Amino acid sequence: MSKLFMFEKPIGMRDTLPHMYATKKNVREQLEQEMTSWGYQMIETPTLEYYETVGIESAILDQQLFKLLDQQGNTLVLRPDMTAPIARLVASSLKGEPYPQRLAYESTVFRAQQYEGGKPAEFDQVGIELVGDGTVSADGEVISLMIAALKRAGLTRFKVAVGHVGFVNAFLIEVVGNEQRADTLRRYLYEKIMSVIVNM
After folding, report:
1. I need a surface site. Which of 7, 79, 155, 169 has the fewest CB within 10 A?
2. Contact yes or no for 91/97 (Cβ under 8 A)
3. What is the DSSP letter of 38?
4. Under DSSP, is residue 104 helix (H, G, I), strand (E, B) or coil?
5. Residues 65/80, Cβ–Cβ less than 8 Å
6. C-alpha distance from residue 177 to each of 61, 169, 173, 180, 181 (Å)
C-alpha cells in the first residue's frame, strides 16, 4: 500500500461543501415533509448492524459490505441499505404494532466500491417502507407518494418505471436454471439499478 497523501479521503467518500450542504438539506426537508404529510413516521436505525442479521439479509453483495469487528469478536457492517435494517426493526421493536406500518427514513448508507468504478461509497438514501399491506392500493400509494415527493423537491421532468418482482424472480429462475444462480444475478441487477439511481 502506498503512503497516503495528507489530505486524501478514502475511495468513494466525499466532502459536502456549504453550498451543496444547503441544497441537500433543503431537498431532504421537502421530502420529509411530503412523506410525513402522507402519514409516514420518520425512524432511524444504527449506522452499525450485525453482519449475521442485516449484512447477510441485505441485497447488497458481500464484497461491498464494510465490515468491522467489535470487542467481543462479532462482525459488524456499516449499513449498506435501509430495507434490511427496517425489516429487523419491524420484527423486533415494532412487532406488537398493528399493520400496515408506514415508515420513512433519511440515512447515510455505505458500500465498498471498486477503485476504478468511480461510484460513491457513502451516500444518502431517502425513502419509505409500507409494511404489512400487500394490496394493489399500497403499490399505488407508494408510487403516488414518490411522484409527489419528487415534484415537491423541485423536479419537473422525470420518468417512473414500474416493475414487478414476482415476474422478475420467475424470469431469472427460468433463464439461469436455479434459485441460487438467480439470487446472484438478482443482486448484480440490483446493484446496477442502484448505481444508476445514485449517479443521476
Report:
1. 7
2. no
3. T
4. strand
5. yes
6. 20, 11, 5, 9, 7
- Chosen CATH of 18-160 out of 1.20.1740.10, 3.30.930.10, 3.30.750.24, 3.30.420.40: 3.30.930.10
The residue among 147, 143, 125, 129 whose CA lies nearest residue 198 is: 125
Give the integer Cα–Cα distance in Å for 77 and 62. 10
* Cell matching residue 93: 421493536
Q: What are 42's strand-pairing partners?
A: 104
Q: b/e map of 169-191 (b: 16 or more CB within 10 Å)?
A: eeebbeeeeeeeebeeebbeeeb
In tens digits, what is the pLDDT along the chain, a chain of 200 residues? Answer: 566 666 777 777 888 899 999 999 999 999 999 999 999 999 999 999 999 888 777 778 888 888 999 999 999 999 999 989 999 999 999 999 999 999 999 999 998 876 555 678 888 999 999 999 988 899 899 999 999 999 999 999 988 887 776 777 777 777 777 777 777 777 776 665 444 444 44
Closest CA to 79 of 41, 115, 105: 105
Cβ atoms 113, 85 nearer than 8 A: no
pTM: 0.76
Q: Which of 76, 72, 78 is nearest to 51 (CA)?
A: 76
Q: Are 103 and 68 in contact (CB under 8 A)?
A: no
The neighbouring-strand residues paired with 129 are 103
**Measured distance CA(150)–CA(156) in Å, rounded:** 8
